[in-house]
Structure formats: structure tokens, C-alpha cells
Amino acid sequence: QVQLVESGGGLVQPGGSLRLSCAASGSILSNRTMGWYRQAPGKQRELVAVITSGGSTNYADSVKGRFTISKDNAKNTVYLQMNSLKPEDTAVYYCNAQHRFSGYVSWGQGTQVTVSS
Fold it and tell me: What is the pLDDT of residue 96?
């Protein structure tokens, strides 16, 4: 079973930056699409960014130009660089892995990001 562990969340002022990391158990990035999702209080979980096994990326309109998803296959780690953070980016951020053939999905436990002055 795939295990995903997020880290890097915290409290940051508006306009600041954070980098989230998602460490995966085993060498899974080569055959999975990896994604970052977030869920704010009282709202549904939403897609933030995804990166395919081939390295293609896609972003929610609300974060385009501010967030960057990347991965290091050798370290089995996916990153989310978040710049120019806004209060509306406040949420629990979750890492997600979807197998490219079976579609099986795994989730991490989440990491809290709070943007506030």
C-alpha cells in the first residue's frame, strides 16, 4: 500500500512563500499521476495542481502563475512551491497519488497552510 507523508505547512504572511513536500513510500512516481489538493473549512476538497508520470503539469486557475508542482523521482518526493500566498490559500493541503493504469488512489494525511497577517 502506498503511503504519502506531507510536510512543509505552516503560518505565513500574505505575499509570502512556502514549499510543501510529499514523500512517497517506494518508487511510485514513475507510474502515477501525483497531485496536490486542498480543503478549506466548510468547502469541498479541490484540485490545486497535478503532475503526470511523464512530467506534464496542470493547475487550478486560482493558483496559476503562483504555484509550481515538481517531483524528484530519485527521492520519491513531490513538491508544491507556493509563492505570493493569499489568505484564500488557507486550507489543509493533501497529496494524492493515482496509478496510471488501475486508477487506484492514495491520499496523505494533509498539512495545514495558514496565510494571515
Answer: 96
